Amino acid sequence: MKLNGSIIKSIAINTFRETVRDKLLYSLLGFAVLTIAASLLAGSVSLGQDARVIQNFGITALLVFLLIITIFIGTQLVYREVERKTIYLTLSKPLTRESFYLGKYIGLCLTIAVCALVMGVVFLAVLRWKTGQFSTPVIWATSFVILEAWLLTAVGLLFSSFTSALASAVYTFGIVLIGHSATTIWILSQKSQGILRYVLEMVYYLFPNLEKFNLRNEIVYNFQPDLQQVLLVVAYFIAYTAAVLLAGLAIFRRDEF
Amino acid sequence: MLKIDKLVKAYQFRRETVPVLHNISLEVPRGKIFGFLGANGAGKTTTIKVIVDLLFADSGTIMIDNLPHSSIKAKRLIGFMPEQPQFYHHLSAREVLLFVGELFELDPKTVETKAKNLLRQVGLADAENTVVRRFSKGMHQRLAFAVALMNDPKLLIMDEPLDGLDPLGRLDFKRLFLEQKKLGTTIFLSSHILSDVEEICDEVAIINKGQIVKQGTPQKLRGTYPTLEEYFVSTVQKQ
Amino acid sequence: MSFKQLQFERISWLLPIALLLFSYVAQINYDVWRRYSAPKIKTTYNLYIEPQPLSAESSKAISFGAKEFVADLYWLKLIQYYGGGDPNGKYRKLAELFTTITDLSPKFTAAYQTGLLILPGEGFVNEAIALGEKGIKNLPDRWEMPYYTGIVYHIYKKDYLTAGRYFENAAKLPNAPENAKYLAAIYYNKGDQRQTAYALFKTVYDGTRDSFIKERTAKYLAHLEGIFLLDAKIAEFKQRYNRLPKTLNELISTKLLDGIPVSPLGLTYQYDAENGKIIETK
């Protein structure tokens, strides 16, 4: 595996530029910001629980929109390169496919981080305005949402390296649902008997456990994760993402265009 | 400069295997313009895609200046212009060239002036900052040629470079090819417009149904036929 | 082009407008029929208004990790439900909603408080006590949990000894109101019920920052103040005429009162001429 830092950087920046100049991304981002603002409305009819409702609605909106952006760009971008034949331009140049793939991934991660940052700042501003407080738990929860989105980007890239854009979007969405049901799946597996138990446990360990990145339920209780928790989650993220990226690369290396 | 030896390639469609190239061998001499001729579906584009590493050969070897074609070193020598070239819609013509410069890891100091010169050379000086999305087909073609020249290639590989150009554009391009030849660049181009090829190529190879049928200078191949086109039609029909 | 075609093309743009108008007419008619001919629909309870909360387990499964968010959705639904008024007079799903919300969000303090406050009044006394116990378990540091449960025991169960135990527990917790202990003592002595109830509500009213709870307790306080006023006037009447008034209107005719106070809780003050006591009825 030959990687070239400066080429990865160029491809990442180009990918970032491509997504940022995409009008669709703006509309999504605008919609997300609107939804966070709309949580204000929900808060106002909540019988004095507005701070709580705004926090829960806001962080959920942030998650949902970041995941939509992730699924959308994560599965569309590589496919679009092939569709529009721009991949001819890039892959015929002196670079390895590994560099191309990683560059794409990093560029997408950059876009996701920027989107999350925009939404996070709006969210914090709304909270500050309504509750007069600066919420550190929101920062923790948002950072974990970003990690989750980064992991799913790798998953989306893996799918788009062997199937169509629509199919990989659907599969990635499936992974999101399974990943967020991790706790339910575990409870079910412990209640089941025999072969079903092994199947459910296998599902639990095979699919990404996205609930590990879930600090969203704790923000209204002003919860701060401890260092060990953060380190373990980051380690889980790195290991799982690297595995998915390597699997995707193994396929992409053999792709023909 | 470019040496293809016993190249075999088949496409897999589910369980079906469709052979495209059977045992292609050819050699492109240094500093010449080499025409790669064939009807639609003969295997021209497939061969070219294998050379630039977009497809993988089933067997056979391709050497560029005695380097394996998929090596980074070999790729540095190649300028590639695909059929119906497309670029990132979000970039301007200048940005496309700068991006390509980055991929070739060219000196960032000279890359800016180089891009400017190339755009002038291919007649896109006015469209420097126009987004590629707004480009016409001919402009895409011109930009693709500039992209192919970005790294001062030793070997220019072009798939149907004259396709879709108006007569003036064709004339322009032929002049540019000859200019490149004067600089010592080897040019490998595929085409089905034989009159153009006859005019500028030093050597041609005819591919039909995945096999090289004939190779030689246009004059020698034509022999007694009035034009290369008539020779081509009779050779292909005989098969 | 024939005359007929021309005619149609000229008026064709009218067609969508006419159809739209027709749809409005149909819609209005439907609404009128629904509103004034309700018996035609053979459902005892209006399923469109009544929320159908899922079990806590199913809610957790479909929340995909956003438990607090789903709890909030149910919370908003509950407010709509309770605030909208039930045409059938009984909020059948109220207790169920509180259970689901607090299962999804076990530390949702305001949900317990609100539940303890409104559930008993709607006939869910045992459910309210269960909710209070759950709150005591999940929020062991919040004095409101045992305190509010104590109130339920006092008012609806008339079990003053148990109420006193809850108040004593509440008094041990941080930030508990100073009079919790005092109230507990009164309970053990089984004092005057309405006066203690008033004192209880007053502490809740003064202690809460929740606008809904404040509003609700203010209503209770005003209701009890109405009773106290009537009691005082009856006593004054007895002192003046040496007998009990026959009806409440006698208080007005003797100029002791300008009018019978109206309970903000929607209850009516009834007068028991036998022993001169005020009873509240619905």
Verbal overview:
Chain A is mainly α and 257 residues long. Chain A is built from ten helices and no strands. The two termini of chain A are 20 Å apart. The two termini of chain B are 30 Å apart. Chain B is built from nine helices and ten strands. In chain B, helix 3 (93-103) crosses helix 4 (108-121). Chain B has a six-stranded mixed beta sheet, with helices on both faces. Chain B has 239 residues and is α/β, with parallel strands linked by helices. By secondary structure, chain C is mostly helical. Among the domains of chain C are: 56-192, Serine Threonine Protein Phosphatase 5, Tetratricopeptide repeat; 223-281, no CATH class. In chain C, 64% of the residues lie in helices and 4% in strands. Chain C has a two-stranded antiparallel ribbon with strand order 1-2. In chain C, a hairpin with a 4-residue loop joins strand 1 (268-272) and strand 2. Chain C is flat and about 95 Å long. Chains in contact: A-B, A-C.
Considering residues with a beta carbon less than 8 A from a beta carbon on another chain, report the largest interface and each chain's count.
Answer: A-B, 27 and 29 residues
Number of separate strands of chain C: 2
Helix fraction of chain C, binned, reads: 55-70%
Spatial strand arrangement across the major sheet of chain C: 1-2
Strand content of chain C: under 5%
Q: How many strand elements of chain A?
A: 0
Distinct helical segment count of chain C: 13
Distance between the termini of chain A: 20 Å
Low-confidence stretches of chain A: none
Kindly report the average pLDDT value of chain A: 87
As residue ranges, the low-confidence spans of chain C are none
Which whole number gives the mean pLDDT of chain C?
Answer: 80
CATH class of one domain in chain C: Mainly Alpha
